[in-house]
Amino acid sequence: MKKPILFLLVFYSILFSFAQDQKDQFIQDFLIQNLDSLGKDIVENPQKYRLQIIYTQIDRDKNNLPSFQTHHFRTELKEYFYPASTVKLFASALSLEKINQLNIKALDKYDIMLTDSVYKGQTAVKVDTTAENGFPSIAHYIKKILVTSDNDAYNRLYEFLGQKDFNNKLKAKGFDDVRITHRLSISLSQDENKHTNPVRFIDRKSNKPLFTQNAQFSQQDFTKPSDIFLGKAYLKGDELINTPMNFKDKNAASLVDLHQLLLRLIFHEKFKTTEQFDLTETDYHFLLQYMSQLPRETVFPDYSQIPDNYCKFLMFGDKDDEEIPNHIRVFNKIGDAYGFTIDNAYIIDLKNNIEFALSAVIYTNDNETLNDGEYEYKETAWPFMGVLGRAFYRYELDRKREFTPDLTKFKFNYDK
Q1: Greatest CA separation for the chain
Q2: d(Cα 395, Cα 259) in Å, to the nearest integer?
């Protein structure tokens, strides 16, 4: 009796492996057949560009329930990339979750959040002139993060969460390849990043105190135990160091985790409770609105001078002077730093009733020097992202579906 069972196990193992190979072959063939000369050159030299792509095809049943078929390009290599601002989406979701789990009836994301300073490297925040009421809040920080990728707003959420809880809560949800070790755009030591500021919440109507969180310190070490070297040289201040730069102390996230985060926020009901964030439907609505809202649709802050594509690389990375059509909405979070460009997007067309999810990372650093500000974003990375997104968009326009998706839930009343 054991031989038939063994045979079946081997058969299904081969069948499963074949299916995986077919998925890989699909995306490789698709990229070669559907990209322009720039795109093909990048796809044919993926090691140089440290290229990774994930595409999820979404189909609906007669009840509009989604199912996913996901294709991967080079994600199995687990090649390091610096995640830059993409980690801000984790911070946004966890901050809303923390507000809920504090279980303080009068406290919500719109209440005043005051940040104090008690340790070296820390700064305080008492006002926010970009907010309608002149004060900072979790809600306003998230809006600034999602519409224009504001670095200081992220740092304030990092301080609210604390380094230890930030990491451990993500691990508990299965984001195993994510490491959050530092604030963004300011140079602090590992010790300074382990210390996070005291925070106070004040009722926005009565000015009564609602919650006080003392300064926090993470005794856990979330840096990578082994070295991660990139490039041939790097700038440290004005000094050129002619050795590779070590990223072991930097933030990290796999493209698989970023893509999973996106799907869990867009389709949270499809995931196990342990994988979901503890958010209300109002919270999800809030996140999705500002993930898709354009700078020109935003009142506070006034982003009217910022182009539509500023944080929309996929499909529109090379469209600086064009408005994004209103019927196309991109729910995403981008990042670019140290030569890495990342976008993580759920894209819909409300006129043609199509939807798909696409995530990609590309590295452009021809001189192989880090920290010098000389990266080929405009010449290579952003145009590639635009071409890549439009290729999958055209494919989705032509793809036959048994049931047309109802995308009504993704129509939002934007600020203006």
Answers
A1: 75
A2: 20
Number of other CB atoms surrounding residue 156 within 10 Å: 28
If residue 93 lies in a helix (H) or strand (E), which one and from where to where? helix 87-102
Characterize the bridge pairing of strands 354-363 and 229-230: unpaired
Q: What is the length of the chain?
A: 416
Q: What is the pLDDT of residue 50?
A: 98
As a whole number of angstroms, the distance between CA 315 and CA 396 comes to 13
pTM, entire model? 0.94
Mean pLDDT of the chain: 94
Instruction: Supply 102's token pair.
Output: 């504090």
For the chain, list the domains and their CATH numbers.
Answer: 23-410 (3.40.710.10)
Query: What are the pLDDT digits (tens) for 106-160?
Result: 999 999 999 999 999 999 999 999 999 999 999 999 999 999 999 999 999 999 9
Query: Which of 112, 283, 143 shows the shortest CA–CA distance to 212?
Result: 112
Long-range contacts of 280-284 (CB under 8 A, 24+ apart): 280/100, 283/96, 283/100, 283/109
Rounded Cα distance, 56 and 69, in Å? 6
The three-class DSSP label of residue 330 is strand
Here the tokens at position 111 are 């209440």
- Kindly give the pairing relationship between strand 369-370 and strand 233-236: parallel
Q: For 106-189, where are the alpha helices, taking DSSP H only? A: 138-148, 151-161, 163-172
Could you give the CA distance from residue 223 to residue 234 in angstroms, rounded to a whole number?
Answer: 20
Report how far apart the first and last C-alpha atoms of the chain are (Å, whole number).
69
How many C-beta neighbours within 10 Å does residue 50 have? Answer: 19
Query: Are residues 334 and 343 in contact, defined by beta-carbon separation less than 8 angstroms?
Result: yes
Each residue's pLDDT tens digit, 56-108: 999 999 999 999 999 999 999 999 999 999 999 999 999 999 999 999 999 99
Angle at 70 between CA 48 and CA 65, to 5 degrees: 150
Tokens of 110: 């719109």
